[in-house]
Amino acid sequence: xxxxxxxxxxxxxxxxxxxxxxxxxxxxxxxxxxxxxxxxxxxxxxxxxxxxxxxxxxxxxxxxxxxxxxxxxxxxxxxxxxxxxxxxxxxxxxxxxxxxxxxxxxxxxxxxxxxxxxxxxxxxxxxxxxxxxxxxxxxxxxxxxxxxxxxxxxxxxxxxxxxxxxxxxxxxxxxxxxxxxxxxxxxxxxxxxxxxxxxxxxxxxxxxxxxxxxxxxxxxxxxxxxxxxxxxxxxxxxxxxxxxxxxxxxxxxxxxxxxxxxxxxxxxxxxxxxxxxxxxxxxxxxxxxxxxxxxxxxxxxxxxxxxxxxxxxxxxxxxxxxxxxxxxxxxxxxxxxxxxxxxxxxxxxxxxxxxxxxxxxxxxxxxxxxxxxxxxxxxxxxxxxxxxxxxxxxxxxxxxxxxxxxxxxxxxxxxxxxxxxxxxxxxxxxxxxxxxxxxxxxxxxxxxxxxxxxxxxxxxxxxxxxxxxxxxxxxxxxxxxxxxxxxxxxxxxxxxxxxxxxxxxxxxxxxxxxxxxxxxxxxxxxxxxxxxxxxxxxxxxxxxxxxxxxxxxxxxxxxxxxxxxxxxxxxxxxxxxxxxxxxxxxxxxxxxxxxxxxxxxxxxxxxxxxxxxxxxxxxxxxxxxxxxxxxxxxxxxxxxxxxxxxxxxxxxxxxxxxxxxxxxxxxxxxxxxxxxxxxxxxxxxxxxxxxxxxxxxxxxxxxxxxxxxxxxxxxxxxxxxxxxxxxxxxxxxxxxxxxxxxxxxxxxxxxxxxxxxxxxxxxxxxxxxxxxxxxxxxxxxxxxx
Length: 785
Ligand SMILES: Nc1ncnc2c1ncn2[C@@H]1O[C@H](COP(=O)(O)OP(=O)(O)OP(=O)(O)O)[C@@H](O)[C@H]1O
Description:
RNA polymerase recycling motor HelD, alpha/beta, 26 strands, hydrolase, single chain, HelD_bacillota, coiled coil
């Protein structure tokens, strides 16, 4: 037996020993959880028997409550333990299949013994809880594995820095408790393993990258210092993967004080939520909260206004033409800016003195409190108080006024009519109330009077209730009309030093038209909500400690400023790629990833692209400014193909042929990517009779394997085995922002990229050296050159 075989056997023996320990732990836990389950069922069944219920005397009631509380706590404690145990069982079962993926042999400076550190998705102690059989990948010592090749190395613990030497760095592929592969690695974490992971088919769910995290990704994952961490990473560089690993890391590192409830991820679309949903559970952690910016804003804006989605805005932007279109595009860009925010801020300050509009409060058609009265009251309050504080005082005053009106209303005629409409349960309620008052006696005159009093009170109170609720929700402030005065009056705009876009007058008219019709364009949604909060208060969210923003290049400076106000004490991680900025505002404004961002921040740049094969990355980097900074990962594949055709029928033909070829090659997710939804729908209706194909729209919440049609902007963040660009012609992709859209579309491909151009190919393709793709031309008579 040679040295290698012996080593393999030794390693397998160790795996067997660890798996044996895992099995022991599992069997003990299964026994315990079985007992606990029975106990929980038992407590639930006998809940009332174990509680002393006695409601005779006030003291007894208190005692009953205490007994109930104790029993409920007892039950929930058991249920919690049950939950924890089943999580432990899940983790152990995963470990049983694949206990670890890495090992380093480390000798600490000043010591002579070598520690073998085995790294897996979770820690495991030996039988006596003395030694670690497996270290969690997030443990301080595990960072050695990700950060250093063999040789000198160091890692930080909470209060110390430990240095020493790595003498071995090894990777394993273990499945079914059996070692399938084993490599000793040098500089980076095994090109070998990464090659094989990346060569697999695309998945409908993102995978954890824990076994192959690269050093620069590890810097993102383990960053603990930065309040604001900005990651600029090229397409496919693992930004989203690193973000999710970072969530898992933080949950581990701060497990005493941080839970998944304290972390929120803003993702680009609902589809993305399901795409990334499995990564954390695979690592034994719960998913953080997830939302999209649209959902977040829309929920807060309530349902009085219809809000355009960012995708509707994108469709408009990509399809539109004409005068109104030019105005709207300028509006999109201007309203994204901090210049515009400053104008809104100034407008807000001016409202401290005058100008807020209120809504009349009416009851049964009668005016109870006029908007003028409210205005008078509001502006008579101490002007050193900010607007939201004064609004609260006004609300209190309105509620007390309403109470006064409510009392007067009880004696009105309409109340008697309404009393007749009351049903039995209302009478019963009043009856009980009287009994409680201890004054009820069937035959006294007084009690009947009192009963009527209570009934009147009830009728009026029921009618006033919705009004009071509206006051508590501050509906008396006429946000919409106050906001409109920003556009309809000139006092601010005429000030010096105000930077306005050339089409400002047209933008004003257009905006007023939209808002009067209760429609908020996407570019107005954030300013409007920001303005609303200026009047009603920002209600800072302090339960969220970490905010992650993926695809951060698509957030405008105004949107980011808004999020900062909402999450003032949260740490933020922004991840994105300037080359994938596709919203109109990015044309004029710096994106959040820009070096010039004002906020203090730490920046990490990822330049290596892992998703696509080397030929695809070589192709895509050639038409991007700064493309020379993009480094492909060394994975071979076919050159991208450009098929230039003369008419639409041939396009269809070619798409179908490419689909068939890709399916024969074994590719499981194939996307036909179009520029817009409009185009996607047309393509879908043309193809659906010939192949089994799905159309993805912004309502799609999960994505399945197979063949699909999708607009480029919805494919953000996800990946496919093969991508077919439906029309890569110059007519489609020519403008500057379309360069980014085209880049985003092409970089979704892992293994194959096929472009069809109806007519002249896009200028961006022409910028790529010819040897980097295969170019075919098909004439109407189907002759290929
Ligand atoms: N260290 C790694 N080990 C294994 N796979 C990796 C690693 N880093 C990235 N990948 C893979 O590369 C692909 C791209 O990763 P990811 O989607 O996180 O990149 P991204 O930077 O968010 O991309 P984009 O900006 O284009 O959406 C995924 O398939 C991911 O699993």
